[in-house]
Amino acid sequence: MSKICGVSTSTVLDYIINHPYSPALIGFIVNFSKSKRYVENERLKKLLIIDKKKCKFVAVLVKPDNHDLEKIKDLPFDYYQIYDCNPEEIKFIKEKYNKKIISAITVEKKEDVSKYKNFVSISDIILFDSKGYEKSLSYDHNLLNEVPNNINKMIAGNIQFDDDIEKFRNICKYIDISGGLETSGVKDISKIDIFLNKIKQLNNETKKRYPINRST
Length: 216
Known about the structure:
Elements: E1 2-4, H1 10-17, E2 25-29, H2 41-47, E3 56-62, H3 66-72, E4 79-83, H4 87-97, E5 100-107, H5 110-113, E6 125-130, E7 153-155, E8 174-177, E9 182-183, E10 186-187, H6 189-209
Parallel strand pairs: 1-2, 1-8, 2-3, 3-4, 4-5, 5-6, 6-7, 7-8
Antiparallel strand pairs: 9-10
């Protein structure tokens, strides 16, 4: 499954939602103004007045304070994706706002990956991202092979629309992409289309390889 992050215009959002192979998750940068993908609150409210159909909306939050959280509490977000908060802070947010949680672990070296253990009990998904935040930096995604398969894993970090995503099949459940779908810093619909079709193809191949046992 996939998550397209950093959506900031109604044209792109409408295209993604209505794509025949729309992503499971769509992310919006709601409190990190350093990012070129940041959406100011009043514009965000207007942007989210839309039928999201099968997609789930994700508020991407970097060390949110009470003011940040209160501003978005009534918006149609299904998940909060949280960076730079400790497990106790995330647990408090999850319980107060009744949202599913994507806990973001930033990875540079092998030792960083093991931090996921602190967040498993309060997270619906664990995201392993690069240290770059608003920059599309890379890390060795193979480090995630040491994370058990029963962990609901999402990966990000300089993933490109034309990457061989087959290599991620056994690493994670979700692929999170943002900058890799852009041209000159703007989301590119042609790249989005290529990426979503590749995800669909991967899903089809997975079903063929691991068919559901319908015997009783």
